[in-house]
Design brief:
heterodimer, A: Alpha-Beta Plaits, 4-stranded mixed β-sheet, B: alpha/beta, Rossmann fold, 6-stranded mixed β-barrel
């Protein structure tokens, strides 16, 4: 089991493909993420101040003029950059690269809240706990025991549901087999009503994400910055093919 | 489960272990109730640190999606979709995801209460007293009435049986969501055109061209997850075919913005447009123009809709030339005075397109339905006013919030001697009740949902508790059965020991009905029923609609109401993730941004920027909205919405609660205050006929929107 785990550590490169041609913008991923990851709700005033803690947000941009006006909906989350701008600026190594999962992780108990990482993130994917937010009893009963509850002064962001990655790897290792494509599904992809979000191992050329990432429609957000995002979007909407 | 079979093997045998989610419950007939125990003494299947998954059915809307709920140490942690369920196939929407926030809501009612009407104070009762109160009501069946929501179905079945046994009035079912969807109109039109009481199922998956007249099928309409799946398949057809969707409607909904083309037609003109498209299609196909489409004048239809004749011709060509054309009626197009005719015209387009029972066409979802029209609600109100109702039972419905004020429901309640609410939350209706006997929430209940608009096969979706009840609540079915047991006339006919016995007797016929599993006796069948989350057929058994009219009918399609430009506006009410309003006390539904506006925690009124400029209104201004011919006014915050007709304004439904707990109360506005009480030919409220005037109040309040912080910090204007 230990060897299998070790082997996985060295090879797996988790990535996500979001097909914007079928993403309807329904926000199910946003709610799913929040319920899975113990993301606190902040209330109306804090939302108005832009202090919402959604790890995932749907960017909605209007295009065109009435009556040909239409929005594009693009899910935006931590892009798990291979060369992440948030990492070198952290004075406490709270924002670090995980060798095991090849993703960018946030170590909550190292974070001292300088917010340098958020300033440096070109995707505005990081959110900050400005206060302690109450989840009044008995509502705290649904909190996910696999995910830390964060306190005031902590930066947080999408983790690619790292608890599910760990669980999937352990499960496969315990059964003496490799992790199969589709074994590990983050909460957003699991909920997505149109299956627009696909998750998997980019190092495996046969995985679904790898195949999709080779699509003609594939692009990375702000690719020119060279951050090597591991979230790949497939061009879509009404501009698809045009 | 034998010791030799590991958990994983067991799951493989049962064919569910293919996904991350696993179902483990239903190990035997003894596991009727889930027990929340201390960490040191967990039941065998509930190992500390290991999650246990239960299959149940979502109770947040009538679509009846299958859920797998992850529990740990007796707590419901996370809601996931049931991958095997025919409705949602493993997917789940925001409303289902937040159902644990309903279960663990701190504002739930902890036990049976006696109330003083209109007063917030209450006295606790015991369940014995509650049962005897219900018994008093039931013992006089002619003088009782039941008002139920659209779920759960097993309660509806029991109450129906009760009324059939005693001769009491049949239960009335109402939900504002049903009104916003145009359910009653769709069903009535389906009966007329397709000769059946069943819900039509529109198969997007193989359609080439879809004309959508107002159905918000990606948001809330009928079965959003089933339709989202259809939408995906439509976009991913073979050889890169991705279909072409045209959406008609005065306001661009999320569904319309995922269409390829949005045609902003005047509210109430959808039917004329459908008729015109039918006429053009028939002509292009070289057919004799059927009577249904013959009467419409193309130019007049284009003028009424506010589009050019050329555009209309072009759309007609598009519909006529496609291999698989599909037309869907729903939502705001049906809730007008010509809604019934509109639905018939649109369903007629499918007959013309010859797509009945063909891939990419119209099918019939299995199972007849029982949605009540507004006429039934009006009859109930009249009965109350006439003093014919001594005891009114209300379950799963919040009429004070969901019905138009003008209907006078609240006034009618004053004539009812005893009002018993079964609401788990202190909603607006519970506040004017004499007793509240709280039912469990969906995740603590037994039951089934059998009327599923998004399934391709006969399905009974099972509801089971995933945790022990959090409070001293009691299942309404159990309360009714306990009360009935003491009434000899009833107990002889309603011979059920408790809720589980009732459900088992109801589903016993399914054992031999050829589902994907069966068993030799009920206990085994029951454990599989719980384990799989219900019973359904192995293969699709869609019905095929028949052409009941041969399109040989003429419709009296009035032209839409005229508004004075810049002074009067059409009001569109649209549904959101709040559903019929019950979602407003789930903080994460409040904080999940509206997809189109990104607004959270409030309601807003959508207004075209040009209209706002004409009226001198800025973003975030508070305006007063007055219905023409009405006196009730409401105030709402303006959102400048580029995708709405300049002569139309739109308000979301679901906010504006005066009760329902800390997260719902005093937040936003309830557009039902403005609705008129008139109904169309199918007995549906004509809410989309509401015309309003807008007056600025001079006050402002920034909306909590995710898209922009401008305005809040005062550093710039839009």
């Amino acid at each position: 089991m230990a060897e299998l785990l070790k082997e996985q550590e060295e090879t797996q490169k988790w990535g996500m493909v979001i097909d914007m041609d079928i993403c309807s913008g329904c926000q199910a991923c946003v709610t799913a993420c929040s319920m899975e990851n113990n993301v606190p709700f902040v209330g109306e005033d804090e939302m108005a101040y832009g202090r919402g803690l959604q790890w995932m947000r749907i960017r909605r941009y209007w295009e065109g003029e009435y009556p040909e006006v239409t929005p594009t909906h693009q899910p935006m989350l931590c892009q798990q950059c291979g060369s992440a701008p948030c990492e070198p600026v952290c004075p406490t190594f709270a924002s670090v690269h995980s060798q095991e999962e090849q993703i960018n992780v946030q170590v909550y108990n190292r974070c001292i809240g300088t917010r340098y990482c958020a300033n440096n993130c070109p995707f505005s994917a990081r959110v900050f706990n400005w206060f302690d937010y109450e989840t009044p009893a008995p509502m705290n009963s649904y909190l996910n025991p696999d995910v830390s509850v964060r306190r005031r002064g902590i930066m947080e962001k999408c983790t690619f549901c790292v608890q599910r990655i760990v669980h999937g790897r352990q499960q496969a290792a315990a059964e003496g087999r490799e992790v199969e494509d589709g074994d590990i599904v983050p909460a957003c992809a699991q909920a997505c009503p149109t299956d627009a979000i696909v998750f998997g191992d980019l190092s495996d050329p046969e995985s679904k994400v790898s195949k999709m990432s080779r699509s003609d429609r594939a692009f990375k957000e702000l690719e020119e910055l060279g951050t090597q995002p591991k979230v790949i979007y497939l061009k879509g909407g009404k501009s698809y093919g045009g | 489960m034998s010791n030799k079979i590991s958990r994983r093997d067991f799951l493989k045998i049962s064919g569910i272990g293919v996904t991350a989610a696993a179902v483990l419950t239903g190990c035997g007939p003894a596991s009727r109730y889930v027990v929340r125990q201390s960490y040191v003494d967990m039941p065998e299947y509930n190992q500390t640190g290991k999650s246990t998954y239960y299959a149940t059915t979502c109770q947040e809307c009538p679509a009846g999606c299958g859920l797998i709920v992850r529990t740990q140490e007796g707590r419901a942690i996370k809601v996931e979709g049931n991958p095997n369920h025919p409705v949602n196939q493993g997917k789940v929407c925001s409303r289902g995801l937040t159902s644990v926030q309903g279960l663990y809501n701190p504002d739930r009612i902890g036990g049976p209460l006696q109330r003083t009407r209109g007063d917030r104070s209450s006295q606790p009762l015991t369940w014995e007293e509650a049962v005897s109160t219900v018994q008093n009501g039931l013992s006089n069946p002619e003088k009782t009435a039941f008002l139920l929501g659209l779920m759960p179905d097993h309660l509806f079945d029991l109450v129906t049986e009760f009324s059939e046994t005693t001769g009491a009035a049949a239960p009335v079912r109402y939900s504002a969501l049903g009104t916003l969807e145009g359910r009653a109109t769709l069903l009535a039109a389906s009966k007329k055109m397709y000769g059946t009481d069943q819900f039509p199922y529109f198969d997007l998956s193989a359609a080439d061209v879809v004309f959508n007249f107002g159905a918000d099928y990606l948001e809330t309409w009928l079965s959003p997850l089933a339709y989202s799946r259809g939408y995906r398949k439509m976009r991913k057809q073979e050889f890169g075919k991705r279909g072409y969707i045209v959406a008609f409607g005065a306001r661009q909904s999320l569904t319309a913005s995922n269409a390829d083309e949005w045609i902003p037609v005047t509210p109430g003109s959808e039917g004329l447009v459908a008729l015109a498209i039918g006429q053009i299609t028939a002509r292009l196909k070289g057919q004799t123009i059927p009577a249904l489409f013959a009467g419409v004048n193309l130019q007049a239809a284009a003028d009424a809709a506010g589009i050019s004749l050329q555009k209309l011709q072009q759309l007609g060509q598009l519909f006529a030339n496609a291999e698989n054309s599909l037309a869907i009626p729903g939502g705001a197009a049906l809730t007008t005075s010509v809604g019934y005719e509109t639905a018939q015209a649109v369903l007629g387009l499918n007959i013309l397109a010859d797509n009945l029972g063909k891939p990419g066409g119209v099918f019939l979802a299995p199972g007849t339905t029982s949605t009540a029209s507004m006429e039934a609600v009006k009859t109930l109100i009249q009965r109350c006013l006439d003093g014919e109702v001594d005891t009114l039972f209300i379950h799963g419905c919040n009429p004070i919030f969901e019905l138009p004020d003008k209907l006078g429901f609240e006034k009618a309640l004053e004539k009812v001697k005893t009002i018993i609410s079964f609401a788990p939350f202190e909603d607006e209706t519970a506040l004017v009740s004499d007793f509240v006997f709280p039912d469990h929430t969906g995740l603590e209940s037994f039951g089934y949902q059998r009327l599923l608009a998004g399934t391709d096969r006969s399905t009974y979706s099972s509801i089971q508790p995933v945790v022990q009840p959090v409070h001293n609540t009691k299942s309404t079915v159990d309360v009714l059965l306990a009360a009935a047991a003491a009434i000899p006339a009833l107990s002889a006919n309603l011979n059920y020991t408790d809720e589980v016995d009732f459900i088992q007797q109801k589903i016993s016929s399914l054992i031999q009905a050829g589902g994907f599993f069966t068993a030799s006796e009920m206990p085994t069948f029951w454990s599989k029923w719980l384990q799989f989350g219900g019973w359904w057929k192995n293969a699709a058994n869609f019905g095929t609609p028949r052409d009941a009219t041969k399109l040989d009918l003429e419709l009296n399609m009035n032209t839409p109401q005229k508004v004075t430009e810049g002074e009067e506006f059409h009001l569109v009410t649209f549904s959101t993730q709040m559903g019929d309003g019950r979602g407003a006390n789930r903080p994460w539904l409040q904080e999940t941004p509206d997809p189109q506006t990104t607004v959270t925690w409030n309601s807003w009124i959508e207004m075209h920027p040009a209209t706002a400029e004409h009226l001198g209104i800025m973003d975030d201004d508070i305006v007063e909205i007055t219905p023409i011919g009405g006196t009730n006014t409401i105030e709402a915050i303006v959102y400048l919405y580029p995708a709405i007709r300049p002569d139309t304004v739109a308000i979301p439904f679901g906010q504006g609660h005066t009760a329902l707990g800390r997260w719902a109360e005093g937040r936003g506005v309830n557009p039902a205050k403005l609705w008129s009480e008139t109904t169309n030919q199918a007995g549906e409220l004509t809410i989309s006929d509401t015309l309003v005037t807008i007056t600025p109040t001079g006050r402002r309040r920034p909306l909590a929107r995710q898209e922009s912080r401008v305005g809040v910090y005062g550093d710039g204007e839009h």
